[in-house]
Design brief:
alpha/beta, eight-stranded mixed sheet
Length: 380
Amino acid sequence: RSSAALRSKMAFAMREFLLCVAIICGSIYYFLSSILLAAAVGVLLWLAVIGAIVARVRRPWHHAVHTAEIASSRLPDILGNAAALYGDKINDPKVDYGLHHENIDIIVPANKENGEPAHTLRGWHIPPADAKKPEAKILVLCLHGAGRDRRAFLRHSPCLHAAGFGIALIDMREHGLSDRDYRGITYGPREAADVVTMATHAKAVMGYSRVVTVGTSTGASASLIAAAATRKRPDQLIDALVCECPFDSCKRLLQENIGVRLGRVPRFLLPIKNLTTKAAMAACLYVLPRSKNSELNRSPLEAAPLIAPRPVFFMHGGRDVLVSADHSRCLFAAAHEPKQIWISPSAAHTAVFDSAKEEWERRVITFIRTAFKDILPESN
């Protein structure tokens, strides 16, 4: 009996032991499964964050443009709402300022060599006030930033027109009423190609002998790339540049803005934030289209030393939180003479004119007159 009782106890103990082992193994399995599931969800969320950043970088900025809008020159609304950005001056030069203007349609044929589809750039041309004056030979080509349109420089037009210059306000691809292929903007190459197209049209078709670009943000950076790309042309195409709030490279712009958008995190999460920033930046740079024309793939910082002997004027807002004023300082340091720089202490991004209107007018018009003193009289 004692032997049978012992065997019974041993069997019971073995069952209890195996049950405990099973419970422990099951707990470990579910614990590891939970960790793996949480890790998988975390990775998916991390990839979703990166995907959202990439989608924001590449996205087309406006809704589809309809034939009726093009026919009536009725601009679609823009990111951030046009009225919130420009106040009540959001119509056209005639309605807002009484300035006669003409519609411009620049038809660009397909370029298989550069991989560019056929498209049309649309905008406004405000002719010079007096075609007989030497100032009438100069076109001020206004270049808006990403997510904006030709109206970005509508409020600047009266002072430029009063100075006697012709003015062109044109929508880049993916913006305003210009064509789009919904590949998004490129922060450089395709926008620079548009600038080259606009400047070529100004001289070859519109009859201007001099072109000065006045660009802001992406428009300013694209003008630097375009000017460097056309430096070997006999007419140099772009004769002077005014660059407001430019970025010195797409890589730096993305790195700074992605970090800002991710916000502040506890110290122990900094490695994850840094990894996310680097991964998102690499993904953005990978998906952003590049031109097959190597001349247009330079960064603005690489283009800056190639601008001279054409004059360039950098200006920036001291309170710019999207593109810090250090970008303009780096570009100014890289450029050769003749060059100027002005940091307006209280101005935000692309808002130097709003912060210091009279000084902007004085500085820009003086810069243009000095740049073209060979064809302009010393004073008005």
